[in-house]
Amino acid sequence: MNELLQSFEFGRYILKFHKVFVDYGGYKSVLLGLRNTVIIAVLGLLIGIVIGTLIATVRVVPKYRLLPRILNGFASFYVGFFRGTPMVVQLLLFYYVFMPLAGLHYPALTVCVVVFGMNSGAYVSEIMRGGIGSVDPGQMEAGRAVGLSFGKSMLRIVIPQAVKNILPTLGNEFITLIKETSVASFVGTMDLYVAFNYIGTNNYEFMVPYLVMALIYIVLVLMISALVRLMERRLARSDRNQTTH
Amino acid sequence: MIEIKRLTKKYGELLVLDEVTETIEDGEKVVVIGPSGSGKSTLLRCINCMEDPTSGSIYFEGEDLADMRVNINHARRHIGMVFQQFNLFNNMTVLQNIMLAPVTVAAEDRRAAARKNFVIRIKNLFRKEKLPLLPKGKTNAEAKAEAQKRALELLERIGLQDKANVYPSTLSGGQKQRIAIVRALAMNPKVMLFDEPTSALDPEMVGEVLDLIKRLADMGMTMVIVTHEMGFAREVGTRILFMDGGKIRESAPPEEFFNHPKNPRLKEFLSKVIS
Ligand SMILES: Nc1ncnc2c1ncn2[C@@H]1O[C@H](COP(=O)(O)OP(=O)(O)OP(=O)(O)O)[C@@H](O)[C@H]1O
Ligand SMILES: [Mg+2]
What is A29-238's CATH number? Predict the structure, then answer.
């Protein structure tokens, strides 16, 4: 096997990569990068869902009173800002501008999670708004009619149905986040790019590291897609099946 | 029980309710009929605050519903509503549908009592004569057990206890509507509003729903029913209202209403629907 790989140039690259990856412990930074990627994307999405749901709710609340109007104005600004600028720019702004101005010091990973969460919140809010819009208004009316407040009806009746409708889109948002984590390196977080770049720099050879990096991203994304499909099927079943328990 | 005074509702320029004044007494079964677009649904929706009146007021047991000090969610607990499209909560089983409001409301009451007791305790620190604390209210488990017992009882009464753990999408229209009625009853409302409860049903299912409403009527429930079922109106109604163009044009007991209509539009309407 080794001899076969030695016999052509790309094979020799693979061997070099293998050496740094296994013998020099390059896999450790790759695992660390992978861990960070997953942490940023998962926590980012969770924060995004919370923020997005809140914003979407603010945007569908009836607006006769002042408070909902002010909140709605803030929500539009928020969504406009986070959708109107690239993630890298937001990350740099928070890490190198807002935080020093506010005298805050947090680890880069924490900042990444927070910025990804806020960014995702803006996108999720739009997705969620569509999801809420797709739920029959009669559901909210029935909730109000039995004496639940707007918020309770939203939480117990409308949002669960909305989430179900938007699950595939949320899956896509998660995939986007996974891919976007590659900008975490801009503030010095060890991510997949940094890890493979380090291996490449060691060997003066980038072909194999970057190919492997692409492969890891693809595998991640395929796994998530499969997971989303599985969840969709289970949720669809709750509609049709006879019993819950 | 319900007093409607000069109730006007406009959607933009469109005048839907035109200074409607009407009183509904305890135990009355008021049936509302009238042509499409005459404002029947809007009237019901105003009674349980789904729509804000443009002007005029509605009193429920002497309290002005439009008054912001009356908690609308509290008032709604005493007003049951049944919709043409059933509107069962799709994300919940039948049992959960029926239990949701009683359990949630018990939890809200418990929290409200806890809040008030906190304030009373603080006040008591500065008082010689201590104020008594309010009762704590049911625990969540108690409320749940109670709501479940009641829900199962109600389901049994309509013969659907075997559907308790089923999702609404598996039910027939008639079953859905009967469960929607039971869901409203779970809050022990003082009045029930029905908006064309049988209009979305296949003909063979109309009977079972009307029967249930009749049973409720016989038990003395106060109700307001919008319907196109004239036979049913005659049988169950203690008073029939005819709405046209946002006004109540005629109000009379069924005998008089159907046999000796006075309003010319009503005569025309009746000749069209009964033939
Ligand atoms: N949310 C709304 N916005 C604008 N117009 C509305 C709205 N709701 C109802 N309307 C209009 O108000 C009028 C009265 O409606 P309403 O639903 O009360 O009539 P209805 O007597 O119940 O008729 P139907 O027998 O068809 O149910 C109609 O012309 C309708 O188009
Ligand atoms: Mg109507």
Answer: 1.10.3720.10
